[in-house]
Description:
By secondary structure, the protein is of the alpha+beta class. Helix content is about 35%, strand content about 30%. The chain has 3 helices and 9 strands; from the N terminus they run H-E-E-E-E-E-E-H-H-E-E-E. The strands form 2 sheets. Strands 5-4-3-2-6-7 form a 6-stranded antiparallel beta sheet, with no helix packed on it. The longest helix is centred in the last third of the chain and has 24 residues, at about 120-145.
Amino acid sequence: MRATFMVPLILLLAVGVAPAQTDQSLPRGARVRVTPASASPTIVGQLIAVSDSALVVRRQRGGGDITIPRSDVMRLEISRGTRRGANAGSGALYGGVIGGLAGYAVGEDRCGSDAWFCFKRPAASVLGSITGVVAGTFIGLIVGSFERWGDAEVPMSLSVVPTRDGSLAIVSRVPF
Length: 176
């Protein structure tokens, strides 16, 4: 009877540590931002490795790899890149529409000979649209240059560990 309990125990020890979920949300080499639980500054860099006990990140500034215990990680985010081109296009579209409407609103129906500076509504609308497209494109480029971040999950793990009294325990680690 004792042998029937030993076989599953030996198999469990052979496995050692088994991930409870896949870590496809954390691809190696991804750009990450780690907010530590302590008063330390936020760490931005490239994810090198993930283990049961730590994250290894190659720092963006200051070089070198840093090992961060998972228990010290308050928040982990993965870069979603920038949207420079998409925001420039949206800015151009909105700028063109708003500029065209504003130009039409300030344009004149009739321009008399005594008017020094006068644009008829169609011409004012076109000029407003052109100005709005240029301004909107530049604003979209500036807004789109900021990096977007999304929360990432570090997979939980299941381990078999020895206890102080010589027995074994199954431990689940969920860092966040």
